[in-house]
Write a structure and sequence with these properties.
mainly alpha, single chain, 19 helices, Cytochrome Bc1 Complex, Chain D, domain 2, two-stranded antiparallel sheet, 436 residues
């Protein structure tokens, strides 16, 4: 039993019992682990070659750019030894001794096992095509661009490398999920609030219920959701099977993925084995609520009845009927696995309305996935709705059908988010659903 548990934790059983750790096996395993870590998402710019870097990442003091991690000897990591590689990934220290910006989630990768690190190294050295592309310097002005303060930050907030150790006697599937979520999945990098000094308030559940309780500020314009067991804005009402479906397809009967999480599902989660997706879901479902006293969702059909009877006198009601009801229905229930429900949706019920405002203004596309071949687009409405109209319809959605969001959205709130949202044009209605 102990051997089986250890194999799960180290990631071996994902591929079956590997009797022959040949180069090909190791590279294949490393490719899978690189997908689990979603390395391509940050290290590939739009239209660029895989892992060649150059993706711009906004920070409060200027833009930084991801680095070339292909095995090119001149501009990439081709001359990295295994120790150089693991030191960068798990310690946050580049070969030249510079501390990496914590946009690289090395505090999470610190728990990745040596076996998985060696597989990743084999993949990046022998399974990735080398690309000669110079790394781009950050836009951060001097003296803020100096690296030595980052070394202090790393010493204070990044954990020592300590390979993940499961709790003795713990369910092996749960342990595997914890390992993936805390480590390569680096879920906390987005879904855990950060302190003023920008470190995650908790790197695991043992450090407190802030872990995975949702971002405290927008990440690329979106609020990362609460992944704990809270009954209103978390996963408390989700079943394990629903969460597995969401992880593998980006949709389920409750909601659909959007924002930055779309890339995570598209490039990483949909490629995980069913066993690993189940392990992640089981671990997330094991997390308690951040606020055990949070009031749960209870349906109320008063607004649905009013809209059905043609009463659109409430602020935002006419906009909802004209622009939203065709897909999300007058009762907010949507169409399962196509257009997400708005009633009881954790994103709608979140205290921070940023994500909801953002998606109304700019729209979103849910791409086709291996387990769900339909690509679905929500059009942008920012081009034809003014700030007050957006505020009214968002407030209607957040307080109808049993939704009980507290904070009222103002036109000024919408205007602020509109300024940071790229201008969107109209969308051809014929392209809203494309079956691949």
């Amino acid at each position: 039993m102990k051997k089986r548990l250890l194999a799960l934790v180290l990631g071996i059983t994902t591929f079956g019992a590997l009797a022959d750790e040949s180069g090909a096996d190791l590279i294949s395993r490393g490719e899978y682990l690189a997908r689990a870590g979603d390395c391509v998402a940050c290290h590939t710019k739009m239209g660029g070659k895989p892992f060649a870097g150059g993706l711009s990442m906004a920070t409060p003091i200027g833009n930084i750019y991801s680095t070339n991690i292909t095995p090119d000897n001149k501009t990439g990591i081709g001359d990295y030894s295994y120790d150089d590689f693991q030191r960068a990934v798990r310690h946050g220290v580049a070969k030249n001794g510079d501390t990496l910006y914590p946009a690289m989630p090395y505090p999470s990768y610190a728990v990745v096992s040596d076996e998985d690190m060696r597989a990743l190294y084999a993949y990046f050295m022998h399974g990735v095509a080398p690309v000669e592309q110079e790394n781009q310097q950050s836009d951060i002005p001097w003296p803020l661009s100096m690296r030595w303060p980052l070394a202090i930050w790393r010493g204070l907030f990044a954990p020592d490398v300590n390979a993940f150790q499961p709790v003795e006697g713990e369910d092996a599937v749960l342990a595997r999920g914890q390992y993936l979520v805390e480590g390569l999945g680096h879920c906390g990098a987005c879904h855990t609030p950060r302190s003023l000094t920008m470190q995650e308030k908790a790197l695991n559940d043992r450090e407190g219920s802030d872990y995975l309780s949702g971002s405290s500020a927008p990440v690329d314009g979106w609020i990362a959701s609460n992944l704990r067991g809270d009954s209103r804005d978390g996963l408390g009402r989700w079943h394990e099977a629903e969460l597995v479906e969401f992880l593998r397809t980006g949709r389920n009967d409750r909601t659909a993925v959007f924002g930055g999480m779309t890339d995570v599902v598209q490039h990483s989660l949909q490629h995980l084995s069913a066993e690993d997706a189940t392990a992640i879901a089981r671990y997330l479902k094991s997390l308690g609520a951040r606020d055990p006293n949070q009031t749960g969702f209870a349906e109320d059909d008063a607004v649905a009845r009013a809209l059905w009877q043609g009463d659109d006198s409430r602020a935002g009601a006419s906009v909802y009927v004209d622009s939203c009801a065709a897909c999300h229905k007058t009762d907010g229930s949507g169409y399962k696995r196509f257009f997400p429900a708005l009633r009881g949706n954790p994103v709608v019920l979140a205290d921070d309305p940023t994500s909801l405002i953002h998606i109304v203004l700019s729209g979103a596309t849910l791409p086709a996935m291996k387990g769900a071949p339909s690509s679905i687009t929500m059009p942008a409405f920012g081009w034809r709705l003014n700030d007050q109209q957006v505020a009214d319809v968002v407030n209607l959605i957040r307080t109808s059908w049993g939704n009980t969001a507290k904070e009222q959205v103002s036109a000024a709130d919408v205007a602020k988010i509109r300024k940071s949202t790229p201008q969107q044009g109209s969308v051809d209605i014929d392209k809203l659903i494309e079956v691949k």
